[in-house]
Amino acid sequence: MTGPVGGRLDGRSAARLLLAAAIVDLVLVAFLARLLLPVLPISARGNEVILAFLGVFIALLALYWVLSELVLGGRSFGRSILQLDMRTNDGGNLPATRKAARFVGKLTFLGLTGLNPNGAARYDRKTGASWFSPMAPKPIKPFKDWALQVRSGNHAGKPPVRLEQIPGFRKTGNIKIGRDPAWADLPLVGDGDVSGQHCVLMLRDGSLYIMDYGGAGKPGARNGTFLDNRRLKPGKAEKVGLAQSFRLGNVVIRIDR
């Protein structure tokens, strides 16, 4: 396959588009089954016609499923129309072994777990399969190559730090930011505007989220965490979206995409 088309879809958007693609595929298979249905005698009863159609439809659907999931690497008529492209989280080609594991997981539940329109299917999550589309904004770089740069405060002017270089991101996809070096993955020691345990950046379902470190008995950062000049509620993760920076009190951190 060529490079990814567009950007990575979040779980909910991917699930809804895949459901729409599945409906298109079912209509196509039903049409083909009708064309291939053997000519029945005029005396055939309604239930005989229905059973004959169902037999051809199920056989054709099984063949179509194997071809699209294994031979064509996740491509189907419906997915091609909607320009859905199955890849790894960072946009690379999904290895054949993971495609096979995904197919087995899907086969186990006859694909029914993929009909949930509110989130990614379990077999996609377990095998790290992600869906790309022109309808999603395309990141300029893979997430691991994004960087954070402090633009104000005591640490302003230091070189950007790539997410891949931050231990917390490599291990969990989370980046803790604060003044306390024993807690923070990105410590801002000596900057009075920043709390010891100020905020957390999280990579979830292909999107970056930020959370003021509070809630569950914690009061949150003393000077607040701001996104688009709006103070975040402690303990509640919010999607960063297209924001180019966020603010810890008066300390601005730029997101280099």
From TrEMBL:
PROSITE patterns: FHA_DOMAIN. The chain crosses the membrane at residues 17-37, 49-67. Residues 175-232 form the FHA domain. InterPro entries: FHA_dom, SMAD_FHA_dom_sf. It holds the Pfam family FHA. It comes from the Bacteria. Gene3D superfamilies: 2.60.200.20. SMART domains: FHA. Keywords: Membrane, Transmembrane, Transmembrane helix. This is FHA domain-containing protein. It comes from Litoreibacter roseus.
